[in-house]
Amino acid sequence: MRHRKRYKKLRRYTEHRLSMLRNLMKNVITSPRLEIVTTLARAKSLSSFGSKILTYSRKAAKIKALINNAPEDKRDKLKTELVNLSRKIYSYLGDRKLVKSSIDLGSILNSKNKEKGGYFSIYRVGFRRGDSAPQAIVRIET
Fold it and tell me: What are the CA-CA distances from residue 52 to residues 38, 42, 82, 83, 107 (Å)?
């Protein structure tokens, strides 16, 4: 039974699963259209994994915008919060350039005045030719 289980294991060990989800998230962020094609199970896992990263990115982008207009005494506290969020994003992605681009993506998401969560759209595409696995397009809605 699957009662109260938070995520799918995708038939992989923990380290392998996390590195696969990191790589999928990196591919989504670096792709020009913010979308990739993968299997349906991976797409569903990526949406829950990546929503945490994009939430941190939105918070960091909001703080980054506030730093310029903040008074001098509050600016230091905002900078430490920005560093903290950047380190959290770095712990997921593991690349400084991707941290910067994800914060830029967070500012785009903030400008849309979107509610919390629901960053990803999953579209079923068909079946893979080799093993008939269901394919899906994962897209970040901006």
Answer: 20, 16, 16, 17, 15
How far apart are alpha carbons 45 and 10 in whole angstroms? 9
Q: What are the angstrom distances between the C-alpha of 92 and each of 44, 50, 85? A: 18, 9, 11
pLDDT tens figures, 96-137: 999 999 999 999 998 876 677 789 999 999 999 999 999 999
State how many domains the chain has.
Answer: 1
What span, in angstroms and rounded, lies between the C-alpha atoms of 71 and 12? 49
CATH code of the domain containing 82: 3.90.1030.10
User: Residue 126 corresponds to which tokens in the numbers above?
Assistant: 């068909």
Containing domain of residue 135, as a range? Answer: 14-140
